[in-house]
Design goal:
The protein has 255 residues and is an all-alpha fold. The chain has 2 domains: 74 residues; 118 residues, no CATH class. 76% of the residues lie in helices and 0% in strands. The protein has 10 helices and no strands. The N terminus is likely disordered.
Amino acid sequence: MSEQSSEPLQAGADAGTQQTEPRARTEQARTEQAQTPPAQTPPAQTSRAQTPRARPMLVESIGGWRGLVDSGLPVVVFVAANSIGGLPAAIWAAVGCGLALLALRVVRRESVQQAVSGFLGVALAAYIASRTGEAKGFFLLGIWASFFYAGLFLVSVLVRWPLVGLVWEYVDGAGGRWRQDGPLLRAYTWTTLVWVGVFLSRGVVQRFLYEENRTGWLAFARLAMGYPLTVGALAVTILAVRRVRRRTTPVPAEA
């Protein structure tokens, strides 16, 4: 009788032991997993994965295609309105176009810096046209600005502080020691002279058309010698400077 009663007790003890062992192994596995440090991604790889750097298009560095519209559309509207309704209509149409472009940027919550500067330029050009009483007066501001920038860039070359170098090194944060690097200084000098040629050609051509009272051709020259020449000069500048900087030893920044 005692042997038969002990068998169920022994079976119950074995079952309890079998149930306890998996629990113990599970708890041990959880403890080992908690003690094992998680695998860490190298900081350099993490930063590159989180912040991919896309190289912008060349035209984006000078305002993008919207900048082209902001600067060119008011000119087209002015010439078209002048041929249809005369100078007063052209003035109001150009100012209204510039204001509409500015409002569109605000509504779409885009950067308004270029739109504001474009609108101010259109408003000032329209004011000059109203004071001169001639449609060609709308382009006087651009002609004066071209000659001014040509002179400014040329003076910077004559004093051996080319503006292209000043702007490039300021953005790059390399200080002023670049002037002691002969090849780099020559590259900045020649590319600055390229910009002198761009501004001077704009001023000379548009001044000639202004004197000849050819408003339509003046508008065409304003558009054709605007963004296309700017993009071309910018491309030459970037290619020339990067080529020299790759060949020369980086110049340490000033303390």
